[in-house]
Amino acid sequence: MKNEGSRWSRASWPKRLGWIGGGILALFLVIQLVPYGRDHSNPPVTKSPAWVGAQTEQIFNNSCGDCHSNLTKWPWYSNVAPMSWLVQSDVDEGRSIMNFSEWDKPQPAVDELVEQISSGSMPPSKYTIIHSGTKLSDTEKQTLIRGLIATYNADPPGGVKGG
Known about the structure:
Strand content: under 5%
Order of helices and strands: HHHHHH
Largest sheet: none
Radius of gyration: 23 Å
C-alpha cells in the first residue's frame, strides 16, 4: 500500500512551485491581452487657464498635470498590465474631476481644490511614492493654493461643476 504522506513529500515541492510559477507567468501573459490601459492618447487641449504666476504652473505641471490635464506623460510601466489598468483608471478619473486642458468646460470650485491640496489628499501618496519630486512641501502647497485662487479669479473656467 502506498504511503499517503509521500504525496506531500519535500521532493514534490519544487515541482509544485514550478507549476505555480508557470501558472503565474501564464496569467501575467494572458492579462497583457486585455486592451484597457493601453490607449495613451492625450486628447487635444481645448483651452488652458491663463496661469497667474509661472511658479504655480510649474508646481501644477510637476505634481498634478499627469492626471488633471491632457498632457499626461505615460511612463513605461503604463504599458504593462495590471499597472496599465491602475494608471489609466487614475488618469481617467483625474481628468473627469478636474482638467486644466479643458478650461472652457465646468471645473470644481477653487475651494474644493484648496481643501484637497491643504489636506494632503492631492497629489495622492500612491502617485508621489512612484514619482519622486512630486510630493508638495508646505511652501509649495501654499504657493499652489495662492496661485490657483489668483488664476480662478483672473481667468475663471467655463463654469463650476455641480453649481
